[in-house]
Design goal:
Layout (H helix, E strand, L loop, with lengths): L25 E5 L1 H5 L3 H15 L6 E5 H7 L6 E6 L4 E7 L2 E10 L3 H4 L2
């Protein structure tokens, strides 16, 4: 059977632009070790340099410590976050929404050693 061909008329006010990933906000987590070392600016500078190499990005970029984002995921902004990696364990304190890197600590004992 043959189907009739109809012209599709769309009112321009009903057409919205397609947003691409580069137009959307980008949230980057500062690694636990970077937060513990108290050098957030070096991480931010590296991110800015990488984004500059990629070219113009119209969407906003937000940097936040992973420890802080871990608490946000549970709806709180105050606590101690422990990250157990394969080779090291890092504890970071978040006090009233701000990371206190001086109150954090790390150990070269990680999950690999803990599970032996």
């Amino acid at each position: 059977p043959t189907w009739p061909v109809h012209e599709l008329l769309v009112d321009p006010k009903n057409i919205s632009p397609i947003r691409r990933a580069r137009d959307l906000p980008l949230l980057l987590g500062e690694p636990f070790a970077q937060t513990l070392n108290g050098r957030p600016m070096s991480f931010a500078q590296e991110v800015k340099a990488q984004l500059a190499r990629m070219g113009e990005r119209p969407g906003p970029v937000y940097l936040a410590p992973q420890a802080q984002m871990s608490l946000w995921a549970h709806g709180i902004d105050h606590g101690i976050v422990v990250n157990i990696g394969q080779r090291q364990t890092i504890a970071v304190a978040v006090v009233r929404g701000a990371v206190d890197a001086e109150a954090g600590c790390g150990s070269q004992i990680g999950s690999g050693t803990l599970t032996q």
